[in-house]
Each structure stands twice: as structure tokens, then as C-alpha cells.
Amino acid sequence: MADPKGFLNHGREVARTRPVEERVKDWNEVYVPGSLLPIISKQASRCMDCGIPFCHNGCPLGNLIPEWNDYAYREDWSAASERLHATNNFPEFTGRLCPAPCESACVLGINQPPVTIKNVEVSIIDKAWETGDVAPRIPERLSGKTVAVIGSGPAGLAAAQQLTRAGHTVAVYERADRVGGLLRYGIPEFKMEKRHINRRIEQMRAEGTRFRTGVEIGRDLKATDLKKRYDAVVIAAGSTTARDLPVPGRELKGIHQAMEYLPLANKVQEGDYVTAPISAEGKHVVVIGGGDTGADCVGTAHRQGAASVTQLEIMPRPGEERNPVSQPWPTFPMLYKVTSAHEEGGERVYAVSTTHFEGDEDGNVQWLHLSEVEFVDGKLTPKPGTERKIPAQLVTLAMGFTGTDKENGLVDQFGLELDERGNIAREADFQTNVPGVFVAGDAGRGQSLIVWAIAEGRSAARGADRFLTGASDLPAPIRPTDRALAV
């Protein structure tokens, strides 16, 4: 364990963010570079030898958190990195992007602020890259088997890396022009700089994984032809069908899905554009949806110079502290969060629903009409007399996703069965109804967290490896039916 009295002697400290007036002028990560290492040993010492580390249950990867907390406390960064990579292929992704269900399950969190597990994690991996402890793990021998992975998000990359290290020849197909999936084009640069993806991809290339960008399975290459070329296929195409808002005026110009808006801002950072084709500059921006994607739209709009930013959420504002009755420890609570994007300004409006949009004579959106809502007989119902309108010259819809893409032909060409929620159905080993075709990540689970995507990729890799060789030593941290710990 770490310091037996660490949690008694030290309070919780988190990474410092750069001043708002500085960071909104650039696209660099919001945190002060190097601010964690001076404090992280004390923070790791707060891990309290709790006997039963519930953080393991909060994390679907089963991260060995008490072990690498102890190594971080002792500043044995090499050993900490080894323990961290034992369960997680990409801790630099989760350490920056995961909402940390492990911290919600931390035993210390019962009556104190929990251990800063996420900050310790990112400190370990950043130090590992700095010291050269992250190196390609090239397989000693090849199996002679080939695997195609469809999609290069966290699930696809995790599956590909595991299968490559098992000795199979793996090719990753990505329909976008660069590798990374939503990590590349859905996550703004200020949340995770893309250099973190680039160096992982180089590691994977050195290990033997091959990447084919600009190829959409179902359109550019038929799924049936792909299956003929490879001994196994892992589908990790994500949940990319966005939930729409079918209200009057939806057809007006200036109303876009979040995943139409966010990738263009990232493409500016990649050098593809000088300015984004869809920009918030000088506009009154309304973001519909109160989740992380909505917050990403808020932060992007700030950096593009929006005149104002308003974020709408249909649900009531959540509480700032865990309700011990409705959201008891160690479940992951729904709490009021102030992200770095919210710190930068804008207004957040809860318990409202959009009724319609209003445009100008040229068909551009100008106003959004909304109404307050309340629960009546268990249903959200508009409150009479609360209708009003707010200026809206750019509207982004960040209301989540309803399933994997079914329009590109991938599902039909493979002949895949869907579950009752419209996701690709799979069996205990992540295999679909088509032998040799496996599914991992949001395509099979539905919209979820990055940490679940990596866990799914690792687990599906074991299923594919066993299908190819008859047995597998690869870990499978979760089953297809596992879900987050909830009430």
C-alpha cells in the first residue's frame, strides 16, 4: 500500500487549469503542463489499503489501481507503467477523457473526497512516454491468421493491438481520412491533443498493425468481400447514428449535428482548413444537450469567438452532491458538473424543451423557441405560460446516438442480427450470429464511455483469438452483458 496515513495527512488536489483568458485563445490542452508531478506522489499516498478496492468494480478494465498508486507514491514510474498497461492499452486516453467511475467507487469517497485516480493515471503514462518505458511489443511468432478490424476508435484500436500482439496479422479499416475515430474528430484538441493518438499509432505500426484509412466497409468495400479476405473480422464501428430533433424549422440552415460541427474544428488543427466551414464566430450559439458532447461544443464555440453560448438540457439540474438514497456509493452518480468549457463562460439552462426554430427570409436560423418542462405522471410535460425565444444563429444537436450506421450496408451485407435496442447482437464471446465476425464497443453496447470501449475491444480480441486458434491467453475484462454499477 501507499502511506498508511496519506488520506489523513493530505487533502485532494487536482490538476491546475490555465487561466480562461489564456486558454480560449488557443487549442492546447487546458491543464498547466507539468502541474501534476509535484503533487501526484502525495495524492497517490491517499490510497488507503481499503481491503476490498471497489475502484476495481467501478472500472470495467479492472485497473490495478492500488498497485500503481503505491508505485506512483514511491515514484517507481517504470513499475507503475507496467501495472497500468497490464489492464489498459491506452491510459493516456482514459486519463484525459474518462469520467472516472473508479473515483465514484473509491472507498475513501464514502466520507471524504476520493483519490485522484485519473490524475495519477495520466501522470504515470506521461512519465512513461517521457522516460521511454512505452515501447513496441512485437510478437515473437506469427500465427498465419489474418484479422480485419472495422473502426479505429478506442474499441477498434484495443482489439487490434491485442490481436497483433497475439501474433495475428491485423488490418484496421477506418472510413475517415485519419486514424482515431471519435478520439480524432469527436474530441476537441483542448481536451486531448492529437499527438497522444499519433504516437500510439506509431507504436502499433511498429508492432505490425496495418491501417487502411478512407475505406468505408459497406460502401467502398463490400462486407462480404472483406470476410473472404480475412480469417476473422472485428466490427468496432461505433454508435454513429445521431439522435435528431424533429420539430418545425429543423430544416433551416445553421442547425447541425454535433458530429458535423466538431470534426471541422479538429480538421483546422490538422491543417486541412484555415477556418472551419461551420464556425461560431460572431454568432449566438445554442447547444442542445447537456452531456460531454454538448460541453465539447461549448468549448469549441468559445474558441471560435461566439457572441454568446447557451446550453440547453431537458432534464432538471442534478444535485452537486451524491444522494445516499437514490445514488448510493459505489454507484456512478449523476451530479452537476462544471467542465473546463463551462468555466469559460456561457449559460446553462435546465428543464427546457425546444418547440420550434424560427429563421430569416434567407432560410437561416435566427431564433430558438423553448418551453420549460416538468414531470407529470412520470413524463416530461411543457409548463403552460413558460414559452420564450432566445437568439440562435448556430445550433448544434448533442443529444446522443441511437445505434451504429445501418445505411452504409455493413449490417445487411454481413447479415447481422440486431438486439432490441438496435445494436449489433453478440454472444458470450462477442461473436455475432455470423461465425468469425465479432463486435466490440458502442456498435454492440450502444453509446458508452471510452473505458468501456477499451474493455470491449480487449474482450472481443480474446473471443477472436480463441476462434482463430482454439484457445487464448488474452484477458477478457468484461462480458457482453456487463453494465456499469448503477441503482
TrEMBL record:
Q: Which UniProt keywords apply?
A: Amino-acid biosynthesis, Glutamate biosynthesis, Oxidoreductase
The record ties this protein, via InterPro entries, to: 4Fe4S_Fe-S-bd, DPD_II, FAD/NAD-bd_sf, FAD/NAD-binding_dom, Glut_synth_ssu1, Glutamate_Synthase, Helical_ferredxn
Cite the annotated pathway.
Amino-acid biosynthesis
Source superkingdom? Bacteria
The answer to whether UniProt assigns keyword Amino-acid biosynthesis to this entry is yes
Q: Which PROSITE patterns match?
A: 4FE4S_FER_2 (PS51379)
SUPFAM superfamilies found in the cross-reference section: alpha-helical ferredoxin, Nucleotide-binding domain
Could you tell me which residue ranges the 4Fe-4S ferredoxin-type domain spans? Answer: 38-69
Q: Which NCBIfam families match?
A: GOGAT_sm_gam (TIGR01317)
User: Which protein, by its recorded name, is this?
Assistant: Glutamate synthase subunit beta
